[in-house]
Design brief:
The N and C termini lie far apart (122 Å). The chain is mostly helical. It is built from five helices and no strands. It has one domain (16-224): Methane Monooxygenase Hydroxylase, Chain G, domain 1 (Up-down Bundle), CATH 1.20.58.70. The longest helix is centred in the last third of the chain and has 99 residues, at 169-267. Keywords: Acetylation, Coiled coil, Endosome, Golgi apparatus, Membrane, Phosphoprotein, Protein transport, Transmembrane, Transmembrane helix, Transport. Residues 172-234 form the T-SNARE coiled-coil homology domain. It comes from Conger conger.
Amino acid sequence: MSYVKGDANGSQPRDFSGLIQTCGSNIHKITQNTAQIKSMVSQLGTKLDTSELQDRLQQLQHYTNQLAKETNRHLKDLGSLPQPLSPSEQRQQKLQRDRLMNEFSAALNNFQAVQRRAADKEKESVARARAGSRLSAEGGPQDGQLVSFDNNLEDWGQSEAQTEEAITEEDLELIKERETNIRQLESDILDVNQIFKDLAVMIHDQGEMIDSIEANVESAEVHVDRGTEQLQRAAYYQKKSRKKMCILVMVLSTVITILAIIIWQVAK
């Protein structure tokens, strides 16, 4: 079964649209890989549980974890880019970032849930292997505790050879492999927890930035309203001035007419 890979070694996008596209693609890959991991986890503890399945599951979940880290870095890069001058473009970019963060958060939730389920299944497999080999009955670690492999396998073999159902070297290797997988899973789960914390910080910071943008937009609206009011006043005064001019012209015309009549009468 193949899984979706990203271009981790390719050129990294630096502009807003490039980062948006890369993040969206990564989130889609995380979602697809999570579905495959879930299918593989369901096979753990069954007849299909083989070393090959273990290897593929380990590689896939670890790769998906690295993909989540890369996406987290790109989202941080988005927040550090210069803001466009246009308030409408700022709002558009904010909507795109919010959409990506919501999709990324949902994908991470599903991925981490599958990781935890895989870790539980691995622990169950270790417990079964330990019980089947009578390891706990011979003074080994108790259930729920990880086996320590600091001691030499030969020492284990010599101690267990005294019992009829001695643990084999193959059993030890199986338990060791499973517990290594558990440690890696738990480490990757902690990585995802850190990504969630980073997301919370980014959402908080962007909220403050948007508050500032909205304040600037409101300020611009106030200036526009003031400008409109001034234009209305100017139009009013202009209209009033024209009315006064018309009245003055009419008065002057009347005076001139009267003077003309008087002069005509005197001359006559």
